[in-house]
Amino acid sequence: MGKDGNKTIETDNDVATFLAAVEPPERREDGERLAALMQAVSGQPPRLWGPSIIGFGSYHYRYDSGREGDATRIAFSPRKAELVLYLSGISDEDCVPLGKHKRGKGCLYIKRLSGIDMGVLEALIQQSWDYMADNPA
Length: 137
Hints:
By secondary structure, the protein is α+β, with helices and mostly antiparallel strands. The chain has four helices and six strands. The chain has one domain (about 15-135): Aspartate Aminotransferase, domain 1. Pfam families: DUF1801.
């Protein structure tokens, strides 16, 4: 656990090594492609946050409760069943033209990048990156 109480903290673990071990191979390829896309949008290098989240950029937050910490601005995790993207500032309506996906609170779930519109995904990532610049917490 990080000094601020967060379980998901930035680590020094190597992203390329982590991605090379992702299974199945299709998920690994999608993870490498998504990492390149998020790096291009953000202009930031990929960093591992916790054991399995690849994040780009960071911000400091402070809640009214006094809890504070650091988090990644945009991120994803190449899980066995699907890619989980952690994006803020996007709506269900924004995601309609994306293609086959599911939504959760702050998450976008995609089985395969081949099943979605990559131009729409890039626009959503950019929208989230810009939103986090203006609304960090």
